[in-house]
Amino acid sequence: MRVQLQLLALLAPLALASPDTYGYDPAPLKHEHAGQLFNRVSSKSKCLSGVLTDTNSTGKFENVGGINTYLAYPPGKSKKTDIAILYLSDIFGVTLVNNRLLADSLALAGYFVVEPDLFNGDPIGIDQLGDPSFNMTAWRERHPPAAIDAIVTSTIAAMRGSLGVKKIGAVGYCFGGKYVARFLAPGKGLDAGFTAHPSGVVAEEWQGIAAPMSIAFGELDGSSTPAQRAAAEAIFTSTNITFQTNLYSNAEHGFAVRTNLSDPQKAFAQESAYFQAVRWFDAWVK
């Protein structure tokens, strides 16, 4: 009984949040920021240390399951596709160069990366951040969970079918983190998951996870408070799944995709989140 009461106390922050979101602030884009566009800045080193920043994306777009999808292949001529990562983006979508370069970076770690256009050509543009005329509510209504679920389901089916994938890990950044959680439920087709600065996840979705899950939280991410992080960890402990949570100091919402690379602490957080994902999939997918 004491353990149950402690768990209920930890879950209280989730219960008090909006019924449709985990840590969602109704103020549009309050926690979003432009960060830096990777191929418009220069890194200090030309050696590949993890996340690609100062180059152009090298993957290709193809129709996968009826969805415009960015594909990034691991190094080598064989183009092996048996072990793959499903990349579920933030609200800026596959058109944002950062998301494509991050997919390329994961491919360099030895994975076939599949990044579907979750928004059917209707992502939020960086230039819309802070635009008072932008209607976030209307945008969300155009892309409800049922619509995103259908895209993810179709993509997974195509991955395990025509693309020849045998094991699938999924990464989800911000918006995409919710769908990593949803599709780690039994029978949904994923073998392991990683998310950085997830948003919109409700307690029931955390509770439904049945495969290994890793999360990168940012200390300054207003969409994941200490109480909310503790609540998620309490759920994972109670459901006895294999999990990992890391908290990166001085890291804001979106840091794993867009951050100030001139700040050594923020750059370190971004690189570390990348390697966190790679190590996780090396352990549970490869």
- From the coordinates shown, what is the CATH architecture? 3-Layer(aba) Sandwich
SS-derived structural category:
alpha/beta
CATH class: Alpha Beta
Task: Describe the main β-sheet briefly.
Answer: 8 strands, mixed
Q: How confident is the prediction overall: mean pLDDT? A: 86
Helix percentage: 25-40%
Under CATH, the homologous superfamily reads Alpha/Beta hydrolase fold, catalytic domain
Shape: globular
The structural domain count equals: 1
Distance between the amino and carboxyl termini: 40 Å
As laid out across the biggest beta sheet, the strand order is 1-2-4-3-5-6-7-8
Strand content: 15-25%
Return the CATH topology. Rossmann fold
Gyration radius from CA atoms, angstroms: 18 Å
Question: Number of DSSP helices?
Answer: 8
Number of strands: 8
